[in-house]
């Protein structure tokens, strides 16, 4: 097995000193003839500069991390599809990290920024604790948070209003004739879980309906949990609509309803949240509240790039409003 080509071999092939090779590779020479010789020699011997050595000299890694709950969640994938090309245009690689919503894992990610293994971080937590806030006080590299943060936390923040989004879904289901509107939530101690439950209750009250806890279940933001929770609701009461706190939960609800012999939307209407590609391709296509995942990802990338380019303005906060996309899983309401 041949050894990796070295800078010594490049210098020998170019007929110059090692220091001349180093200056040429690092852009520290104005001699175009020297640069041409070194580049030709690099190609000839197949030399690849060490990324570690380069980062030690420039104090830059050329890498950005994106830490989220679940890489497989289509809402996060939509963010990645906006973040990655914008960073790539600026010469950065994107590293993905799944935290499984583990607070300690997220704190570890924030604290490890001191090792300078990345130039910046986009963090998307679904729980925000005092430990998060403390770790965000003085991060070693620029950080942007996608999600709700207290206003006093001094980092750039892109958020949405999922509380209002949940209300939009409930009001749409009511307008389509639903009166027994069930709600299947993710963990209630998460920021989205708390906000979406509050929006569900507000939506019911706005429609003149009472909150019936028989219609409410808490599980996880996954398909299997949505199916199991819907089955529990169906075992104890009648429903004419199910609102899932995300599209995965709503898809699980659709599985449970079909297994129970209920037609969608004839017997039971179903709505979700996030408006992912899964909503478009489900059968029937799923009505869902868009929280602007792609837009939030794009804004977060631009915020981070602005910091990496030396931006010193106060922390920015941008809210992307929700919107409802109506598809065949609910009754279309005429204006």
TrEMBL record:
Transmembrane segments: none annotated. InterPro entries: HTH_LacI (IPR000843), LacI/GalR-like_sensor (IPR046335), Lambda_DNA-bd_dom_sf (IPR010982), Peripla_BP_I (IPR028082). Keywords: DNA-binding, Transcription, Transcription regulation. It comes from the Bacteria. Residues 5-58 form the HTH lacI-type domain. The keyword Repeat does not apply. The keyword Protease does not apply. GO terms for molecular function: DNA-binding transcription factor activity; transcription cis-regulatory region binding. PANTHER family: HTH-TYPE TRANSCRIPTIONAL REGULATOR GALS, LACI-RELATED TRANSCRIPTIONAL REPRESSOR. This is LacI family transcriptional regulator.
């Amino acid at each position: 097995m041949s050894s990796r080509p070295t800078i010594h071999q490049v210098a020998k092939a170019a007929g110059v000193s090692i220091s001349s090779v180093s200056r040429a590779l690092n852009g520290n020479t104005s001699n175009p003839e020297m640069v041409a010789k070194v580049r030709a020699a690099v190609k000839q011997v197949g030399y690849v500069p060490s990324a570690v050595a380069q980062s030690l000299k420039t104090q830059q890694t050329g890498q950005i991390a994106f830490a989220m709950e679940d890489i497989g969640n289509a809402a996060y994938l939509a963010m990645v599809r906006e973040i990655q090309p914008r960073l790539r245009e600026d010469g950065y690689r994107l590293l993905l990290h799944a935290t499984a919503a583990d607070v300690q894992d997220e704190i570890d990610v924030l604290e490890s920024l001191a090792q300078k293994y990345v130039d910046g971080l986009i963090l998307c937590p679904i729980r925000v604790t005092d430990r998060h806030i403390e770790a965000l006080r003085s991060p070693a590299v620029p950080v942007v948070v996608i999600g709700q943060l207290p206003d006093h936390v001094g980092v750039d923040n892109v958020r949405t209003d999922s509380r209002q989004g949940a209300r939009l879904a409930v009001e749409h289901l009511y307008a389509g004739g639903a009166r027994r509107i069930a709600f299947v939530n993710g963990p209630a101690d998460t920021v989205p879980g708390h906000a979406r439950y509050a929006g569900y209750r507000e939506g019911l009250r706005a429609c003149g309906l009472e909150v019936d806890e028989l219609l409410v279940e808490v599980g996880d933001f996954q398909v299997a949990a949505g199916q199991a929770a819907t089955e529990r609701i169906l075992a104890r009461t009648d429903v004419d609509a199910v609102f899932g706190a995300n599209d995965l939960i709503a898809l699980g609800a659709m599985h449970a309803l079909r297994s129970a012999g209920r037609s969608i939307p004839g017997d039971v209407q179903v709505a979700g949240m996030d408006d992912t590609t899964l909503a478009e391709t489900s059968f029937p296509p799923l009505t869902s509240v868009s929280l602007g995942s792609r837009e939030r990802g794009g804004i977060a990338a631009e915020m981070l790039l602005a910091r990496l380019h030396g931006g010193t303005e106060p922390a920015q906060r941008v809210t992307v409003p929700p919107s409802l996309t109506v598809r065949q899983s609910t009754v279309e309401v005429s204006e």
